[in-house]
Amino acid sequence: MEEKLLLESVVLAGEIMLASGAEVFRVEETMQYMLRRSKYETKEAIVLATGIFATLDAAGKKPLTIVKRIHVRSTNVNRICRVNDLSRRFCHGEIDVETVYKELKKVEKEILYSAKMKALGTIGVSASFSFIYGGKPVDLLASGLTGVFLAIANWLVSRVRINDFCSSAFCSFVVAFSAMFIQRWILPTSSADVMIISTIMNLVPGVCFTTAIRDTLNGDYGSGTARITEAIVVALAVAAGVGVGMVCFRAFNGGSL
Amino acid sequence: MIIQIISAFSAVFMFTMLLEIPRKYVVYASASGAIGWWVYLIVQGKEDSSMLAAFLSTLVVAFLSHILARIKKAPVTVFLVSGTLPAVPGAAIYRSVYFLLHDEQVQAIHYLNETILIAGGIAMAISIMDSLFRLIAIYDRRNLKAGS
Fold first, then answer.
1. Which domain holds residue A74?
2. Most buried residue, A37, A115, B123, B143, by CB count within 10 Å?
3. Do B97 and A239 touch (CB under 8 A)?
4. pLDDT above 70 (res B148)
5. What pLDDT is stored for residue B146 in this prediction?
6. DSSP-derived secondary structure letter, A41
7. Residue A173 in this model has a pLDDT that exceeds 90
8. What local confidence, expressed as pLDDT, does residue A255 receive?
9. Last residue of a domain, one of A63, A82, A109
């Protein structure tokens, strides 16, 4: 078997999974299963929250090592499922290395829902949560409107690449400000509380937190801590953004909150 | 209550788009979110404790996620992440900031505390279910070895 290509596919699979927000133990397990198909005796894969190392070695052969740094992380469950599926089929011997590599290259670019659908999702989440937090029918409309502002803010943030803290803070600032603006000037019977709470549900780091717990529990303390820190940073950013948004509106509206 | 459960279903349904969950799992993920929220409402109605409600509802969601993952041959994360969404303490975070800005320290601390408790409750529930299913997996593997 072409060990070089195998190692490249294994690292690519790990890279896609990690960049899509999979738990570290899952990434490591997948990589190790795939490496078992190699004829070399020494096979190791190490995954950290920010990088991947994989190596293959055998007596009388040149050792092979690939190191990969992961910069951007987001959540993309579809890619995790697809890589999982591919590696399972590869380990059962149903497909060969070339196919796996080609398929992985495709998966790397695969997007299920377009940006418009995602914007619609953001608006939908905001609107749906309004009833959960005791909103009236008018709040459904108002939260949907705030969701529109959040979708615009999200789009802006994705164009200017800034760090997690700033982007979350900016988005929640927009949410708080627009919610209070809507309550004051557009739909006076709606409740800014409900609007803000249901719209920031888009921003609170629930996914990150869940993954962090599962990582920590599996003994991957490094990435567990990294992700818990990420969750705390985002939560603080949301809180700060909402706070600043409310203070700004108070100033803008002449002192009354 | 029915409206709330339907809202939870539609909220998780919309959220699956943001997480890029494959279409064939979307309905199951939304259903686990709705069931989780149903449990949350029942517990909160009886005990008046958000922490206990979040804990028990996440316990149910985690259990469902593990079962669904086995039936559908998908990663547990698919159902777990979307199912826990309604229980995430977004409201508590907001209220602690709100009261902080209104100079009501006691209330602000109360909600900050609630945020941490709910987060802890969710964490515990996920840990317990994960560990339980790990034990079952180990037991299964032993049986397989003994059988063959």
1. 3-109
2. B123
3. yes
4. no
5. 67
6. S
7. yes
8. 61
9. A109
- pLDDT over threshold 70, residue A118: yes
Examine the fold and report which residue of A109, A126, A147 is the final residue of a domain before the chain moves on. Answer: A109
Instruction: Select from B19, B77, B115 the Cβ nearest to the Cβ of A23.
Output: B77
- 3-state DSSP call for residue A47? strand
On chain B, the residues whose CB falls within 8 A of the CB of A76 are 19-20
SS3 annotation, A128-169? HHHHHCCCCHHHHHHHHHHHHHHHHHHHHHHHCCCCHHHHHH
**Alpha carbon separation from B89 to A108, A170, A206, A248 (Å, rounded):** 33, 20, 9, 24
Which chain A residues are closer than 8 Å to B123 by Cβ?
A: 209, 213
In angstroms, the CA B104 to CA B108 distance is 6
Return d(Cα A228, Cα A208) in angstroms, integer. 7
* A257 domain residue, yes or no: no
Interface size between A and B, measured as CB pairs under 8 A = 148
Which tens digit of pLDDT belongs to each residue from A3-55?
888 899 999 999 999 988 888 888 998 998 888 888 888 888 999 888 899 99
Distance CA A28, CA A13 (A): 10
